[in-house]
Amino acid sequence: MQILLELNFRQRNSTRVIILILGLLAFVLFKNSTKGCLFLGATLALMLRNPKYVYAFGKTIARDLKAGYRFIRLNIFIMFMERKQRTLARIFQERVKKHPKKPCFIMGDRCLSFQWVENYTNKVGAYFKARGLQRGDCVALIMETRPEFVCLWLGLSKIGVVTALINSHLRRDTLQHSIKVAKANAIIVGTELSDALAEVYDDEEVRDLPIFQFSDEEQRENDQFRLLNGAIDLSNALRLQPIEDLTANIAECKPRDKLLYVYTSGTTGLPKAAVINNLRYLFMSSGVYYMLALRTDDVIYNSLPLYHTAGGIIGVGNALIHGCTIVMRKKFSASNFWKDCIKYECTAAQYIGELCRYLLSTTPRPEDTQHQLRLMYGNGLRPQIWSQFVSRFNIPQIGEVYGSTEGNSNLANITSQVGAIGFIPLFGRYFYPLQIIKYDEDTGEPIRNANGFCQRCAPGETGLMVGKVNSKRATTAFNGYADREASEKKLLHNVFSAGDVYFNSGDMLVSDILGYFYFKDRTGDTFRWRGENVATLEVEANITNVVGLQDCVAYGVDIPYVEGKAGMAAIVDPDRRVDMQHLSAGVRGSLPAFARPLFIRLVSDIPRTGTFKLKKRELVRDSFDIHRVKDPIYYLNKDGIYRLLTEQQYEDLLNGKAGL
Ligand SMILES: *[C@@H]1O[C@H](CO)[C@@H](O)[C@H](O)[C@H]1NC(C)=O
Ligand SMILES: *[C@@H]1O[C@H](CO)[C@@H](O)[C@H](O)[C@H]1NC(C)=O
Ligand SMILES: *[C@H]1O[C@H](CO)[C@@H](O)[C@H](O)[C@H]1NC(C)=O
């Protein structure tokens, strides 16, 4: 309890705290009995001046005690690790000593032990040390899923080198941009992506970097195999590299040293490199481990990409830190999901919302329930399909987790409340660094009162989620992006009192009286589609560029039975001059598949707000409703061409038959 209270203790006025302590004392004296609960509930009600909380308290006390207990264990673990100056590489070494022979990563028919990973990463570290890389340098890693993906960055971290995990779907401009913002000193590329790298080779800043090309056995045996111009054959070099003991190098690294850059499109513009230091990695990964009560002997099925937080940090981290076994797969496959889970005897699996829907849309088969999963965890399981999913596949527990890569506050539903992304214990409401504040729907900006401060939302009111930044505590520090200016944009100052700093998540949440939180939406500048964040600014810039017109706004719209938001762009074109063939080709050439708008609407004008921002709200509400909207609406057909949305397609979209 002490640690929970330590969270922002000073921030609240002391009377509340005194009442709470009295209530807790009474609770302890009555030894957890009903009387004690009522007493504590009444105290809480007094604190919050609202009798409804007595009821809420009775309903949630068991949940909150469980969560409180797990939360305390998590915090103790993190504190302990920081005190002992443990980096990830160091913690992993200790893991290896405990069970060297245990499988760490499994993929296809490869099964790699902890000792194997330790040996391999020592080679990687030693090799790059000999090539002159030093603590604080950065390497961009462009590779598809394979165990070496993790081994490479873990090995680099042993000599203090930061790895930028580049999204393997990026091409051209965005790829170039991602390499540049990380200020990489070298590039490691998988042979499967060497063509993508070749496309950005003409850029001066990229061309000057040494390139290390990695290929697996299969690729080397292929007749087509060739090295990129000037690239070094990394797989061969590592084969010849002797294993070196890097303990001394590891000891030089500190828990707050940068470990990885993970890209997010944040809420504005191009992908940004969010800084993940060792402590943050520990916290994110252990957060899930402790809050969902994972176990060391869990075998976790991870078919998510390794360059995102979910797969690469939360998933992989449970092996590196806590000794679980991770089963990887190059690309998620709905038809092989349960087969794999059965084959590798998985006990837990990770999901994102899309994945659950793809699984649900397969034809029922006996494998559906022959697996031994006791837990699936992840983000984005929609309330509409939650119950159906759980009963068809017989999943005993769902752990829906909320948290952003760069954000500093996290929630987890550890009680399977359908639809909820998590909860904050009632007694933690004022201490947990996460708050929901009122905001202006048009601009997405927080509303400030006469004194210039923001206001908390009551249960049931949708608001903007913000997380308090406390740079002293690892768990709530905001480490920002590689680019300083981008970091500053995400921060709000003077939120509840002069001088405080909060991180603006850009997400809209609503809480209920029991303290559960539900995800509502994202503020206007990004939306999620196919598990990726799409930045509307980027889409707008590209379309404007392609059609050469004045204005364009991009936004996300809901499609029934589909999670995330489909992209839609409204182009100002009163004379209807846009050439759809040209636009189709332009969009294909400049935007990654997930960012291409599914719908295009030609409008005569777009209303603006007082600050000349384009008003999106009405456009979002109109969506692609061809019965209501008189403007022409085009639909991105399977062949990549925009054509007028037909009545049949419209019906299919509404009925979930559009094959999205
Ligand atoms: C790891 O390296 C050690 C010493 O170089 C060697 O004895 C051992 O067999 C290696 N283990 C594996 C799994 O490669
Ligand atoms: C198009 O989008 C890409 C990112 O996908 C971005 O790098 C590029 O700058 C955009 N083009 C224009 C003209 O803004
Ligand atoms: C989230 O809450 C629901 C409802 O209580 C519960 O059934 C589910 O198991 C919870 N998820 C987890 C991971 O506990």
TrEMBL record:
Its main location: membrane. It catalyses: a very long-chain fatty acid + ATP + CoA = a very long-chain fatty acyl-CoA + AMP + diphosphate; tetracosanoate + ATP + CoA = tetracosanoyl-CoA + AMP + diphosphate. It is an enzyme of class 6 (ligase). GO terms for biological process: long-chain fatty acid import into cell. Keywords: ATP-binding, Cell membrane, Fatty acid metabolism, Ligase, Lipid metabolism, Lipid transport, Membrane, Nucleotide-binding, Peroxisome, Transmembrane, Transmembrane helix, Transport. It is found in: Cell membrane; Peroxisome membrane. Its EC number is 6.2.1.3. The chain crosses the membrane at residues 12-30. InterPro entries: AMP-bd_C, AMP-bd_C_sf, AMP-binding_CS, AMP-dep_synth/lig_dom, ANL_N_sf. GO terms for cellular component: endoplasmic reticulum membrane; peroxisomal membrane; plasma membrane. Gene3D superfamilies: 3.30.300.30, N-terminal domain of ligase-like. Residues 92-448 form the AMP-dependent synthetase/ligase domain. PROSITE patterns: AMP_BINDING (PS00455). One of its GO terms (molecular function) is long-chain fatty acid-CoA ligase activity. It is a multi-pass membrane protein. Coiled coil: none annotated. Residues 538-613 form the AMP-binding enzyme C-terminal domain. Acyl-CoA synthetase required for both the import of long chain fatty acids (LCFAs) (C14-C18) and the activation very long chain fatty acids (VLCFAs) (C20-C26) by esterification of the fatty acids into metabolically active CoA-thioesters for subsequent degradation or incorporation into phospholipids. The transport and fatty acyl-CoA synthetase activities are genetically separable and are thus independent activities. Esterifies VLCFAs in the peroxisome matrix. The VLCFAs are actively transported into peroxisomes by a PXA1-PXA2 heterodimeric transporter in the peroxisomal membrane. Belongs to the ATP-dependent AMP-binding enzyme family. This is Very long-chain fatty acid transport protein.
